[in-house]
Amino acid sequence: MSVHNGAVLCVKWSNGEGKYLATGSDDQIVMIWSLDRSTEPWGGGSFGSSDGPNVENWRGHKRLAGHESDVTDVAWSPDNTYLASAGLDSKIIIWDGRTFDRIITLNEHQGFVKGLTWDPVGKYLASQSDDKSVRIWRITDWEVEVVVTEPFAQSSGTTFFERLSWSPDGGHIATANAFSGSIPVSSVIARDNWKAEVSLVGHSAAIEVVAFNPLLFKYTDSKGDIGITSICAVGSQDRGLTVWRTHEPRPFVGIKELFEHSFLDLSWTPDGQSLLSCSYDGTVAVLLFQSENLGEAVPAEEKHRMLAKYGYERRGEIMAETPIQLAMEEQLKESSAKSKMDKVMNHDSSMEGVTTTFAKPSDPSVFAPSRPQVHHIVASEQSVTMTSDGKKRIKPLFLGNGMGSTPTFQPSPQPAQSSHIGIAGSSGYIERGDPSISTPDNGFPTVVVGTKRKDAPVNGTSASGSAAKKVDASAKGKGTQESRNAIATPLLSVSKTRIGIPRVKSHITRNRAGLECHNSLAGDQPSKVICSQKGAVVWVDYLPSPVLLMTGNANFSAVTCEDGGLYIYSPAGRRNVTQQVALMSSVSIAPILQPALYAADAPSNSASVTYAAVRANGLPLLATSAGQGFSWHEGMKVWVKIVDAWFASSSFFGVDPVFGGKLNQQAATPLGQRKGVLAQLQAASTMGRLDKDAAFAQELLNVEATIQNSVTLSHLENQIAAAQVLQSATEYKQWLRCYVQKLADEGSVARVEELCKYLLGPVYEGGEHSGWQPTILGFKKRELLRDLLPVLSSNRTLQRTLKEYVVGLEMVSSPKSESSVSSLTAASEVQ
Fold it and tell me: Which SUPFAM superfamilies does the annotation name (predicted)?
């Protein structure tokens, strides 16, 4: 269990059966762990480890991000409805105990929050902070009920933690780091009046942690009367431990210097017979108590009656109403244990034959580009220069578009720069020129302006349009080579978005493709293309225009030129013109670069394309520096947004359910080797944006804390639709299962009914003519429904709805089918 990137500061099991384990770390993350029952107990040992095999394997279930500093404590509510976390950012975050979505952030404390404890009745949460206060929070509206400060006026800020504890009868809160004058004590706050009138005295240094035994015990006083008491353990910076019965004035256990350093935490076992303690010195001590030392434990029913005076209501468990519900729950357990999905994830051909291009963003900080500053018109006169032959040259001045004066821009000088985009299967890089911004939107009314792009300034001076630029090619080959900006097609003059195109180089090589090219920068000689295999020249061709790009594989080679020409060659060098189909024709990518975000008539850097890929079906994938991923929809003839940084606040953002784990934890896996096309596009779109996306998610949650749940549902629905658009069957099935589990956690009856109805289809005779399609991405919809019903059965509030669809599946099943649904329905009829 090594997901955290820092020291783990707190560990808490969920109440009851201990289904989850919550851990907090100084990496600002709360991790939720669950037992992995799909692997053998001995399967979790690490190679080379001397710790022996794992008895159990626990896997990361959820990663909760929201704190801005160390997480110092976590605490589950009595019924596990909520999980509270506290940190050195002075905040308390309340998470949903089922979905682990953020509910609210409590930020009333003015100092480090170092301890949390829940009221066993479930009405309050208590927190203790370095601001010398204990705050009691109401669960109904998450407002402060009372602030207790008196016992902590002399408290020091030297404690690592201030772990307080609520008594099991609900009547008292034992606090840490309190002082009575100059004497360190554990002050006990009474629930009746929220006054601290009792103190546990006996330590010589500040109290770090207090922990009540989860059970109540009976005792007999000197008069023979039977009473009920609670037991409390106190750990201090003086390395000593005391254990108290709350009806006695002195501790019945006192141990000095149990550790070599301060206490950090205490925890009782559920049976109340053992006390575990840990210290800053790295050791753990276990104290075992005999029944006669503690007394007779009070039965749970009597404890519940004592809590009832504070409003405690024992919530009854929802009972299974039919054998169908019980059988589906059994199926769910069996499917989890056997991990049937592993077979599905062994192979996925959705990314076979993909050719990719990956680039570093020209500005990786771009997320939501702000509107650039508009540069107003600057008056100037025509510029007159003298050429070398003594002739005057007058530089044309833009006068407008015939409709009066028009604002123009004065672009600020940009330093020479170029973005490098690597080509899959290539050892080199493509140097691209700066996008042209010199052509006005509506052209010139009286003068002709060419589309030759201006070279970027070299060494602080502007080179002429035809001058060649020397580029250091030491990283790409020996020596240096010359290059110049390419001449763009006039069609680009009407585009709102200008993209940098490859520079014309004097020499280009693509070793893996066996291609080599020699260009004439002056344009006075043809370009020579050479294809070699194993050192021998296979074919040579000459082209009338300088070559910009080359690529190839075992089946063909492709060359594209400055004049827009594309040449396809067979392995023997024959120009290939057969079986050519255009899936896309002159499709602009301007819509995906968000041109609408920028002010009119002012040039600015838009979002850049950071990733490009072509799938085996010929359709492209693109990712931008704005954290978005797109695919071309052949049927709709539009770009479809597949990945969007808007979903950064979703609980499933950055998760790959097929590959497993977080995408940002799979950095060692090349993008092209990921099992799903959607996962590949997600990883490319979010590459290098972890901090930016996390900041955006935090900003969004600050607007309304409950937004995370809605965004998570929307994100899951988007992922299902995206997998369908990308024709990725494996990812579709896995995201559908995640969505169904989320619906089960939410108990969303309406959405569940709608989904089940979509998968079941018509059950009446003649329903095949209704237009309902029985399959999706090769899966039979009814078989998907059959597999998903057990997942939904994890929430028994849905059992009546699910029963209808179990019966519906039986109605549409073949009489010869020996499905599990048949046996379930038969069992129901017998019942």
Answer: WD40 repeat-like
| CA distance linking residue 735 with residue 809, whole number of Å | 23
Identify which of 729, 775, 40, 720 has the alpha carbon closest to the alpha carbon of residue 347: 729
| pLDDT given at position 232 | 95
Q: What does the pLDDT read at residue 405?
A: 35
Distances (CA, A) of 303 to 166, 173, 299, 692: 14, 17, 6, 49
Let me know: does 1 contact 61? Beta carbons within 8 Å. no
Q: How far apart are CA 809 and CA 816, in angstroms?
A: 14
- Candidates 162, 137, 160, 142; CA nearest to 151 is 162
Closest residue by Cα to residue 245 from 278, 215, 277: 215
CA distance 81 to 139: 11
The stretch 32-53 carries a mean pLDDT of: 61
Q: Note if the pTM is more than 0.85.
A: no
Cβ atoms 607, 594 nearer than 8 A: yes
Alpha carbons 618 and 208: distance in angstroms, whole number:
64
pLDDT tens per residue across span 157-208: 888 999 999 999 999 999 999 998 889 999 999 998 999 989 999 899 999 9
> Alpha helices of 653-780 — where are they, by DSSP H?
677-686, 690-703, 707-725, 729-746, 749-760
CB atoms closer than 10 angstroms to residue 441: 12
Where residue 345 falls among pLDDT bands split at 50, 70, 90? very low
- The secondary element (H helix, E strand) that includes residue 93 is strand 92-96
Query: Counting every residue, how long is the chain?
Result: 831
Beta-strand ranges (E) seen in 297-451 are: 355-359, 383-386, 392-395, 420-423, 429-431
- Three-state DSSP class for 825? helix
Q: For residues 370, 376, 377 and 379, what is the CA-based torsion angle, rounded to 10 degrees?
A: -130
Maximal CA-CA distance, the chain: 124
DSSP-based three-state secondary structure for 349: helix
* Cα(203)–Cα(142) distance, integer angstroms: 35
pLDDT for position 480: 53
Return the structure tokens found at 737.
Answer: 């299962």
Which secondary-structure segment (H or E) carries 343?
helix 341-344
